[in-house]
Structure prediction request, 317 residues.
Amino acid sequence: MTLPGRTAYREELTKIAADNPRVLCLEADLGGRGHPFAEAHPDRFFNVGIAEGAMVDMAAGLAAGGYQPFVSTFAPFAALRAAESLKLALGYLGAGITVVAPYAGVSGGWFGTTHHCLEDFAVLRAVPGVTIAAPYGEREMRAVIRRAARTGTPHYVRTGRNAAPESLPWQGTDPPVVNWDDAGARPDRVCLVSVGEVGTELCLAVRRADPGLAHAHLCFVDQPHLEQAAAELARRYDRFVVVEEHRPAGSVGSALALLLSGRVVRSVNAGEGWPSRGGSHEQVLDQLGLNEAAVWEALASVKESPLVTGARERNGI
Prediction:
């Protein structure tokens, strides 16, 4: 059994803090009883209450004082309510703060629109200098948190609520720019590209049904990482279906469509609608049209779309 991303984060940070006295943990009324960091390092744990902007501002001051603050709150409150503080602290000041944002996408399900967040990539990708990660599974989450602690640079880490998938395997310390899952793929130059927990689950389900499909998983989705990923993707494939739990505007799919000029890129995402009824995570995703059927439809469309003549030459491939 693996742990959900938010639980793996707390455990990993607690371990890191045992060897690094500069690591601090700040949460916006999410601590609860039995928080492992609070129990192991009570003098370095701060529950600031429902004051997300103030929490980020506190973290900026602590970072200026030589500490390494890790802050956590629900994704809509981190990326949207505290957006100005994030822009100034992580962007303008370049403060070494790591923001861990659970309940991303519509993983809050029943909590409704106020607790959904389908806009965080758009907000954070617009802030230069922030490493943005959407780990899939416990191993990826732990590796991303170790990377953030090791580099001391601004990070935004998106995760869900209770999903606990098994991470895809890779070699090395950090998740790769592109984690290839294309063994046995057909030579038709069509590739699924997955982002985050839901996007990766859907791509894996479709690939299980059709093992001849290629699949590329992305953990890091900030602009520098996506530029590297696009170059690597273009060396192997020409047609892409990008699957992510986000709105079309500011999405990874929209960024890759620009970077893969001349290729065919289709985005399977959460669309422009607002969920009108409560429900489980899966039920809300279905309301938004983010499901396996949408992936199959996009694959059929992308296979029929012509490439732009001379695309490879213009991309230097």
User: Anything to note?
Assistant: Residues 5-19 form the longest helix (15 residues). Confidence is low (pLDDT under 50) at residues 310-317. The CA atoms of residues 240 and 265 lie 5 Å apart. The first strand starts at residue 23 and ends at 27.
